[in-house]
Amino acid sequence: MRYRLGVDVGGTFTDILLIDQESGQTYRAKTPSTPHDQSIGVLAGIRKACAVADVSPDEIGEILHGTTVATNAILEGKGARVGLVTTAGFRQVLQIARSFVPGGLAGWIIWPKPEPLAALEDTVEAVERVAADGSVVTPLDEDDLRAKLRSLRGVEALAVSLINSFAFDGHERRIAELAAEELPGVPVSISSEVLPELREYERTVTTVANAYVQPRVARYLDNLGLDLYALRSDGGLASQASAKAAPVNMLLSGPAGGVAGATWVAEQAGFTDFLTFDMGGTSTDVALVQDARPRVGRETKVGDLTVRSASVDVRTVGAGGGSVAHVPELTRALRVGPQSAGAEPGPAAYGKGGTDPTVTDANVVLGYLPSRLAGGEIVLDRERSRAAVAQVADAMGLSVEAAAQGIVDIVNENMFGALRLVSVQQGFDPRDFALVAFGGAGPLHANALGRLTGSWPVIIPPSPGVLCAYGDATTCLRDEASRTSIKRFSQLTDDELRQMLTELAERAAATLEAEGVGRADQTVTYQVDVRYHGQGFEIPIDLGLDTGLEALGKAFDAEHERLFSFLLSNEHEVVSARASVSGPRPDVRPVRLDQGGPAAEPVDKHEVWIDGGWAEASIYDRGTLLAGDRIEGPAIVTEMDSTTLVLPGHVADVHESGSLLIRPLEA
């Protein structure tokens, strides 16, 4: 099959990208998301993309899907009713949790503690006990447990998380067998499969989260009726069966697709170190990529929930095209977001009943957006936008244009703060990185974010509005195996470490082999969690199979000093190890533009409000641009799925890969 299709569901739009793997030609479709049932918008978008390309859906070889179904189930509190089985004496593990309260000083006074995903009344205790070395201290009392499982009839999913099951999983597996008899049809998640690592609370909450979203994800994938691969939070692909079994690994599926797509296009333009900036209708996601490898963290955060699952280190802020601007009565200071107009009713400019002033409305007032979006599917009403922004202008005693500029400036500062979280706060200087901007609204704000961060060039990929779908379509299958084994370096040899990593790689490789990826086509990476003996946390360190303990210790010291600016003399200690196995990246031929330049021809002129006054900006059709063309600001570049703003004093050069590279004129 010559066609490969990427699907990304956002809060406002569903993006579809169909790729001809032989020519590299792409066909795009953008349809409004359908929050009540995402499958409706997905199937409509696939039909639309196939119609644009004049191909039959039967000609599509693979469908790669980034989805927010699991994320939304957590955020909306609409997951399954979960039953939980713990070791006797640990029934309140979720209620005790960790003694960390978000917020500032005395935040605990007003912080409403979130309810656990498994209620206490749906939690039962198994009479059993396993020691930390895996030896059985108390055998499992099966008769007692059967009666307790029968009391859980009515739950929609079951989670099993026993003490030290990472060292011995026999009791958990037996409980799963008993549950199949006593609770037929109820899906069971066991912690020794979901997260076979140290720390009981993190392992339990991750397993419960998996059970919480499992029925909804399975139902969604079944409703689609498609044979597809789902994007994992770490940027790899999982088979449909794996996605149904471990949906907790998909909580950041959508943002991970954007980072994967940004990595693809940045490499085509010759850049390996960059920040990603994905601004959609509801939120903005940012990440840092170094040496063409996204930084992958060991935790995934969704709302108030933090689970132990590998994910691209993405930070999210409630700043998007639909973010609502308001002026609180108490402070009379302009605020933007996190509330969003979303897809329904959307910004006032959409004419669907929205009346609140949004970032999109501000951009319309300033002249930055054309009258039509998404290939003419959405018509913008400038007068409705002015009426909406006038609410802010009247409240602050400003002109409508000044109020709109204020809205844009504030949302830019909010997104700049997010970019600092993944760069400055992690010990990186943003001036050492390029900035890849995408999403439906990203290119409109990218030049301004480049000025704030000092990150040049600002890279605007081809089809930036559907880049997440492009990332879905250009990434590869991946699986991971992990194990906890706490040993000080003096208790471990290089050969023993190598043996442990090899065994983990074998487990993950077997999973990919079952999906048709031969061993010769697999790539293995290794990671070990290291800490100083006596320390309460560890740092994941990447290493090679031949890396010895001495080199591992030096790498840990360097990372510890970068993060915390100090070192300890305590002995090093290995906590957990993992191996990640990836299949080959798809053989998608990159697009190469014909040579043109140096001056691109504008298709129109347009008045825009910049730096406190109206100025004439040239408008360019991106579809007509050629490699080597140069665009001087102020200018607007339009295309089907996004709009790029080039500010005065800056130029955008068209790279042969199709990306726009924006730099200050003096550079």
From TrEMBL:
InterPro entries, sorted: ACX-like_C, Hydant_A_N, Hydantoinase_A, Oxoprolinase-like
Residue intervals of the Hydantoinase A/oxoprolinase domain: 203-477
Domain Hydantoinase/oxoprolinase N-terminal as annotated: residue spans: 4-182
Highest taxon listed in the record's lineage: Bacteria
Disordered, as annotated region: 579-600
Any single Pfam family the record assigns to this protein: Hydant_A_C
Residues covered by the Acetophenone carboxylase-like C-terminal domain: 495-649
Name used for this protein in its record: Hydantoinase/oxoprolinase family protein
Annotated organism of origin: Nonomuraea harbinensis
Organism ancestry: Bacteria, Bacillati, Actinomycetota, Actinomycetes, Streptosporangiales
